[in-house]
């Protein structure tokens, strides 16, 4: 079960999508409404994603978001007005309880995959958790992370079946990431759903000196490959004007292009 959704055999991969950070209520609602309409047309599950705080920005002057209270207010409104399930990331164990009261799914950031207190708090929350694989970890290493999460979920009486793992690329020298498609198979063999983060996988971390860059043109080729391998879900950040986005614009999918991309990926998934 993923945010209240059972993915039947042959069903399209679910999609986690939205802006990187909550820039404004109006932007989030506008994107979420477009995603809701797309989900209905394509008969697929879409989970809205936006962050209330980006605690891992390259520069101290970069926009981080509007904070926990305002962020949760916006996410609750998106959920209520569009009917979409919502996801946001948590950076601290103290975030987990208030966030879990509002959202349908938690996400732990890739850089924090080895932070035991955060992983166990999220897993014990009773919400599904999308655990991102760190860029510095091998796919099989996520077995230990999953072990921590399962133990915490079981101890708290939560459902360990709500755990999933997310691939977002591995460090390849300086300011570059590469995706090893074998990792998707390896992580699925750990017995949990696997999500492929197609937009962060094309990021060039710190590639702009005081900011990260990205290679948006490679989102679709990598997503096609991941769907052909057989992932359960996709993660893609999207924005109506990526060049004006306040975070991660260079690797985002333009909102106008997202539905066509998903149509092509669903067709590949049906064949795979």
TrEMBL record:
GO cellular component, alphabetical, reads: cytoplasm
What would be an example GO MF term here?
A: 3-deoxy-8-phosphooctulonate synthase activity
Domain (DAHP synthetase I/KDSA): give its ranges: 10-260
Known Gene3D superfamilies for this protein?
Answer: Aldolase class I (3.20.20.70)
Q: Cellular location of this protein?
A: Cytoplasm
Enzyme class, UniProt record, top EC level = transferase
Among SUPFAM superfamilies, the record links this protein to: Aldolase
Q: What is its EC number?
A: 2.5.1.55
Q: Pfam families of this UniProt entry?
A: DAHP_synth_1
Reactions catalysed, semicolon-separated, are: D-arabinose 5-phosphate + phosphoenolpyruvate + H2O = 3-deoxy-alpha-D-manno-2-octulosonate-8-phosphate + phosphate
Q: In which pathway does it act?
A: Carbohydrate biosynthesis; 3-deoxy-D-manno-octulosonate biosynthesis; 3-deoxy-D-manno-octulosonate from D-ribulose 5-phosphate: step 2/3; Bacterial outer membrane biogenesis; lipopolysaccharide biosynthesis
Q: Report the superkingdom from the record.
A: Bacteria
Q: Which UniProt keywords apply?
A: Cytoplasm, Lipopolysaccharide biosynthesis, Transferase
InterPro entries in alphabetical order:
Aldolase_TIM, DAHP1/KDSA, KDO8P_synthase
- GO biological process, alphabetically ordered: keto-3-deoxy-D-manno-octulosonic acid biosynthetic process
Instruction: Give the residue range of the signal peptide.
Output: none
Stated family: Belongs to the KdsA family.
Name-wise, this protein is 2-dehydro-3-deoxyphosphooctonate aldolase
Q: What does the organism's lineage look like at the top?
A: Bacteria, Pseudomonadati, Pseudomonadota, Alphaproteobacteria, Sphingomonadales
